[in-house]
Amino acid sequence: MEATIVRTAGEYVHVRLKDGQVLPAALRGKFRLEEHNFTTPVAVGDAVRIRIEEGIAVIEEILPRHNWLVRVDPSHAYRRQILACNIDQALLLVTVESPFTPLRYVDGFLVLCEAYGVLAGLAFTKADLKLRPRSQNKRND
To answer: Taking burial as the number of CB atoms within 10 A of a residue's CB, which of 57, 69, 106, 137 is the most buried?
Structure first.
């Protein structure tokens, strides 16, 4: 049976079945023991083959990826962290005020998407705060 990984948190993984049901999942030992340069062998968006045992999906196979977004793992410079894979489009929410999104984040996001062949989009939020005088933007706590 095929499923899509929708959540990862350390060793904990959740998959969505074709009927929309979300189940906790476990990686077979071979995936954890294989030598790889990534923080984890699976990422959100991975298509996988599973079998269900006592309400838990056991990941038997990781299907080929179409694309991915990868960065250097902040805690291990020699390893990579897969942020997401099999992506149709990535959207960055950019705040123009409170807090301001630094342009280097926007640049980095656009370069990352271009490098890995992912369609990128930007959505600007909090634009209404930029229209008011700065003194009115501060909260009165």
So the answer is: 57
